[in-house]
Amino acid sequence: MSSRREESQDRAIVRIAAHLPDLIVYGDFSPERPSVDYFDGVLMFVDISGFTAMTEKFSTAMYMDRGAEQLVEILNHYISAIVEKVLIFGGDILKFAGDALLALWKVERRQLENIITVVIKCSLEIHGLFETQEAEEGLDVRVKIGLAAGHITMLVFGDETRNYFLVIGQAVEDVRLAQNMAQMNDVILSPNCWQLCDRSMIEIERIPDQRAVKVNFLKPPSTFNFDEFFTKCMTFMNYYPSGDHKNLLRLACMLESDPELEMSLQKYVMESILKQIDDKQLRGYLSELRPVTIVFVNLVFKDQDKAEVIGSAIQDACVHISSVLRVFRGQINKVFMFDKGCSFLCVFGFPGEKAPDEVTHALESAVDIFDFCSQVHKIRTVSIGVASGIVFCGIVGHSVRHEYTVIGQKVNIAARMMMYYPGIVTCDSVTYNGSNLPAYFFKELPKKVMKGVADSGPVYQCLGLNEKVMFGMAYLICSRDEGYPLLGRDKEIKYFMCTMKEFLVSNCSRVLMYEGSSGYGKSQILMEIEYLAQGENHRTIAIALTKIGFHQNFYTIQILMANVLGLDACKHYKERQTNLQNKVKTLLDEKFYCLLNDLFHVQFPISREVSKMTTLKKQKQLETLFLKILEQTVKEERIIFIIDEGQFIDSASWAFMEKLIRTVPIFIIMSLSPFTDTPCVAARTIMKNRNATYVTLGALQPKDIRNKVCLDLNVRCIPKELDTYLVEGSCGIPFYCEELLKNLDHHRVLVFQPMESEEKTNMTWNNLFKNFSRPSEELKILTPNYEERSEEVCTLASGVRLKNLSPPASLKETSLVQLDSMSLSHQMLVRCAAVTGLTFTTELLFEVLPCWNMKMMIKALATLVDANVFDCFRNGKELRTALKHNAASCKVNHRSLSLRPGLGIARDEGEELHELESEVIECHVIRFCRPVMQKTAYELWLKAERRAMHLKCARFLEEDAHRCDHCRSGDFVPYHHFTVDIRLNTLDVDTIQKMAKSHGYKTEEEITFSKIETPKKSEIFSENLSPEEIREKILSFFDVIITKMKMPEEDIIPLESCQCEEIVEMVIMPLAHHFLALGENNKALYYFLEITSAYLILGDNYMAHLYLKEGERLLKMLKDDRSWSHTFEAAAFYSLKGQVCFNMGQMVLAKKMLRKALRLLNRVFPYNLISLFLHTHVEKNRHFYYADQQAQESSRPGKRRLAQLYRQTACFSLLWQIYSLNYFFHHKYYGHLAAMMQVNTALETQDDFQESEEEEAAGDSSRLVFSQSSSSQPKDSERQRRPRGAVQDHPPRIFCGGFGPALCFPHTAMP
């Protein structure tokens, strides 16, 4: 039975029905639209408080690990409980409206009395749900319930593609008013409901000055049996589960497939939901905290009571609203009766529907809807509220009844603006600032106190797109700051200066175009150009266009000519008219003056000749006049015309400019974003003109981003971690950098403090490195007073993890636009890649992609590389080189080279894509072009799916998580894997032995061990030997070991070079982060220590220090772990810490760390002279003991012991070196003891050389070759290294046990 039920619930019709009430699922409606149906019933309106505040809390969370999924789990925990109660008591959930729901009990009128009792019982039980539950996430959930009963009218309306329904009538109005009267945990009965109910069953409380009443409790007679009463009542409910289905919550769960019914129901569900149902994806997939634009439309009717009258008005409005929204990818999410009117909740930016210029489109749509609906004669008032921001978009409810809805403060703000500012289109400040519409399209309104909105910020009225444009409004506002230079654009400015000089001395036009995507700083360049272009013999006209200009014929030339004719300063049309007459009287016959009326808003009398002219002839006449005026003007002074946002130039203006540059010497400079569509013929002609130059703007260099940050924050320097985060996150785009800084400031991540002199700074582990990035000398030259005005440094708040910060909403929105424009398969690839990390290999991506073949993946990758989603590199070295410098900041193209492939001179697209595919095949490393895209795509995953993906990545990567073949594999921390159980992929012993044999290894029985020949009696530390003799003895001792450990020449595998650095970056680092995401902190700590050790071997002390900090955070989290493996990890942590301190010349810190490590390894190094001499005596005895043991058959140390002994040896070696560097008399004794303890530890392991090799080969399938003793020399790079005061570039080495990077004594005098 249960399997049958599961099968039925997976049917498409059942999944569609879950989004709809029984009223629609089982309804039989007329195909006419609108159609009306009448019935009686009881309505319940449940308002749930607390969710909006919680949505805000989640939407402003700092880190990526708190997102929509946690929110939807909490929401549905509460809402599903309410839905379940309603369904159990026979109710039908009509609508979910954000954090409220409307339920119906549809019965005949004579059954209303009994059903009201059932509904009151249900309401009281809903309140009971929340009295005992503890609040989650600080959420205080309380409900308010209103009940009403009586006649109800249902209206069905829509167009060919979508249907909507409404319940209207007095009962609907009553239930809303009843709920409004309710306080927390109240149940309020409307006056009609109180009249119709069984009053003997209900204890009520009167509400002052109201006919509605408050329910206290039910008071049935002692003989009353509610179960029997309820069963009897449910017989009147047509679709209440009974008989074989009595255990079901809802009968619609057992719907049989019916193509006709399914087709009918689909029209009530949003298209994006239907796509998910067709793909059989989980309903949680669409749940996101997402930046959207809300448009709330409210229609108030002249005659509210007549359903037929308002039905046709709603139908007309709905058809128009749908057609307007469809153009800009907006959708109607809900339609409901709201405060004496019908409200449409429209949303722009749903998943898969994100489009560029969303806010502008929303405002355009709002004005269009307002204009149309205001003309519908049955509608009295149209009010529209528009708000933009992050809201929760997702499916809320129960598994058998749910809906896709939006919840958030921005939804509330839009609704409240709609009600508190009736009869106009209003918007919030976020919409106003993001609209890209000129300021004169808006009017700031007086603030009002709005219910449920603490602070909405400024509210603006959108005046519409048909207002008359006043001259001067479109001029480029120059906010150039003398103390804030234009950074990183020297080449672009120099090119302008050269071109301007050529123009001023020649007699021909010049066109200079700067193209760059939004955020690259085009407007800043033009502001600088306007400043530099000022001169005595030429006039500069600078304007900034908006999208509105594109739709107004001749608009750009209108602004140009208004300036040339001096009309921009005129305050009245009569003044403009007088100026025009004076300017054109010699160039134009008076009867043609009226041609200028519409263009310049003047009122010359319209002549008979002009009234007979066609539109085309009028425009030609105007163009001729303007050319004459400009020809006359340039004889007196040259004109430099600067246009910001040139992509918004209208086609008529392009055509005029094309003629202008051929006939009049003029210098036109413009900035423009890449054309989304093919530009007009005139625009293409200008671009191909021999005097036109097209400059493509690129990213700023890292040093310029650093300079910008220091200037913006007004500080002397910033933390390196912040520098890396901003350089990497901004990708050299100034706007991205600004948004990231704003986000950090919003979350109070940045801390400012006075700058301290280096002498005052006490050296600690945290300030071991000069962890600050300073601006370049270039900035000091450009801003001479920079150091005088900035006396502070910027630091980060403690505990902040920049890498895990959620991206700012503005940047996330940009990424979502790009993501939603991709095909579903490409979206899936990007989302899978996001889990693998910012940088990943093609092999790893192929491993995690579900059901893809290699050809599909390569083709998709090539397309995404072409779309600038990914960059590809042949190897890690190529990637590291690319990350040091961004691409060139600009690229200059002459004439037709400026045109894109789509503009007429393209090569075959298929050929280009094929070349890219070949390039991707050769590449091994892929990286997201922009980290914000990776973070945005990562946040779209559900928690369970994300975890499964991380686990898949970790399983794949751990096979390669060891040193390269050149270094004979092995751990970076020698024998590390012996100490900690971190393997995900485990094999049984038989399989491992077979694998070992297949690689040519022998089993233990087949191996004959040879003993190392070492002195049987120790004479190394004879008391009569001098320090020089002791030194020679020790070196001779290690010469024997080195000789025995030396590999035959044939065993050495010749490779080109060491690949350890690439393994660290492409395997071990990602592996650590995958385990962090999985919550496996012990495994993550293991790999962070491996990374640290690797960077020490590579000579990069700064990176080692950085990852030790990550390890330190995990150690604190695991402080309650008392296991031996955790103790070893702590010891390894402190020994590596000591090594970093030693390399940086901080010997006191190094000694402190090494002593801590030894204590954890059960060895103590003395602090005072008495203890020193006691330890020396003990160690001498130990030495004699180990030497005597050599002559006998002694048991070998275990694997864990081997790792422990190696750590001890490493610590003693460093301590010996530290004391050797100091010339105080007593330090030579400490050095002597450290050397002796080191030798004793080595002696404990030395007869285990070959046995350990076999154990390691048989013990781990991924390490079939034993670890070779090696250490890579530090590389010449810009990484931070130990100061010259330290003797060596890397720690000393001594061979102990025959594995790993070992330690030996340097050739310096022993104490």
Automatic annotation (TrEMBL):
InterPro entries: A/G_cyclase, Nucleotide_cyclase, P-loop_NTPase. One of its GO terms (molecular function) is metal ion binding. It is a peripheral membrane protein. It is an enzyme of class 4 (lyase). It catalyses: ATP = 3',5'-cyclic AMP + diphosphate. Pfam families: Guanylate_cyc. Its EC number is 4.6.1.1. GO terms for cellular component: cilium; cytoskeleton; nucleus; perinuclear region of cytoplasm; plasma membrane. Residues 42-179, 341-418 form the Guanylate cyclase domain. Residues 1246-1293 are annotated as: Disordered. Its main location: membrane. Residues 1261-1274 have a biased composition (Low complexity). Its cofactor is Mg(2+); Mn(2+). Keywords: ATP-binding, cAMP biosynthesis, Cell membrane, Cell projection, Cytoplasm, Cytoskeleton, Lyase, Magnesium, Membrane, Metal-binding, Nucleotide-binding, Nucleus, Repeat. One of its GO terms (biological process) is intracellular signal transduction. Residues 1246-1258 have a biased composition (Acidic residues). It is found in: Cell membrane; Cell projection, Cilium; Cytoplasm, Cytoskeleton; Cytoplasm, Perinuclear region. The keyword 4Fe-4S does not apply. Catalyzes the formation of the signaling molecule cAMP. May function as sensor that mediates responses to changes in cellular bicarbonate and CO(2) levels. Has a critical role in mammalian spermatogenesis by producing the cAMP which regulates cAMP-responsive nuclear factors indispensable for sperm maturation in the epididymis. Induces capacitation, the maturational process that sperm undergo prior to fertilization. Involved in ciliary beat regulation. PANTHER family: ADENYLATE CYCLASE TYPE 10 (PTHR16305:SF32), TESTICULAR SOLUBLE ADENYLYL CYCLASE (PTHR16305). This is Adenylate cyclase type 10.
